[in-house]
Amino acid sequence: MPPRKTPATPRRRECLQIDLALQGGGSHGAFTWGVLDRLLQDHSLEIAGVSGTSAGAMNAVALAAGLMAGGREGARETLGHFWRRVAQTSPFHALEMGPLAAFWGPDNPWLAAWTAPWRQAASLLGSQLSPYQLNPLNLNPLRDVLQATIDFERVRSCHKTQLFIAATQVRTGALRTFRQHELSVDVVLASACLPLLFQAVEIDGEAYWDGGYAGNPTLLPLITESPADDLLLVQINPSLRDELPTRADAILDRINEVTFNASLIKEMRSIALLQQLIADEGRPGHQYRNPLFARVEALRVHRVDGGAALAALGAASKTQTQWPFLAMLFERGTEAADRWLHENRLHIGQRGTLNLVEAFGS
Fold it and tell me: Which parts of 180-285 are beta strand (E)?
């Protein structure tokens, strides 16, 4: 009688490595929180590296700290804890959690009309006085939020992913990319330092402003230092607006959107140009003297685009921290990530799903 065969053990689904490029965009970063939450639930994906700017930097450090504290579920918990603490900085937080919560929802036109004059007055005051005059004590509620929710020792020692955080050096205007071992509360605040709202953040004798001016986010560290060949951009600043802005506030908002997308567009165009030059040479898999060419050749780019949906909310909404608004953005982010996974999961590891020339021009 032949020996009985042992049933074959089911093969574990291969884990695919991806890099994440997380844009900044104020409270719209809660959309990215939703994207991350959905990605963390997909055990077929492993996040190899994250490049983040401003709100993207905050999501990145929350992700890393949570991964070290409790794996994927720990990361989801830490991200949720961070954004709930952000909501607690809202002056209306107690009302939002009370019986009148529905009134404070993001879709209430009466609330928008009531608060509009106050927002306009604050904007006018901010355009006339610097944060050094308006906030001489340099108070920043985000510092307290970060200190209360993020363990930076875990961030710096995280071996489950790599982090790259961008800031703009005020003196030179150059991009500074902070590596994981350098990360701190000050580095993240520097990456999110809008110069008309906050005083510049000093690190090692240099003053820094928001990283979005020079890299929103920066992609090169992911290409050169992460092992993943798939790069997923989570874009929350709209690239396209069909209507011509004619009001002064709308013009300024669009200028800011163009400014904070400029560095990303340049990097994407450079990648597209290099890939086209390599393809024109007709030498796939060639042993290049510069390893950057091999990395660019292998790169597959993808995008979860929240820009179009978030654009309808208006630029002023980037400073809204009410919990109903953040929760709505989270839901939109999870839905967008779920759609992207449904449509593109099979392409990860095979081909890029974002046409760089169509998306960012030539």
Answer: 201-203, 206-210, 230-235
- Which of 71, 69, 87 lies closest to 29 in space, CA to CA? 87
18 phi and psi, to 5 degrees? Answer: -135, 150
pLDDT over 50 (residue 3) = no
Assess contact for 334 and 37: CB atoms under 8 A: yes
- Tokens encoding 120: 């306009």
Parallel, antiparallel or unpaired: strands 206-210 and 162-169: antiparallel
**Angstrom distances, CA of residue 14 to CA of 43, 197, 199, 248:** 9, 46, 47, 52
pLDDT at 334 over 60: yes
Taking the C-alpha atoms of residue 237 and residue 263, their distance in angstroms, rounded to an integer, is 12
Share of the chain above pLDDT 70, in %: 84
pTM: 0.86
Q: Are 33 and 79 in contact (CB under 8 A)?
A: yes
> Taking Cα atoms as reference points, which of 173, 150, 168 lies closest to residue 74?
150
62, 78 contact by CB (below 8 A): yes
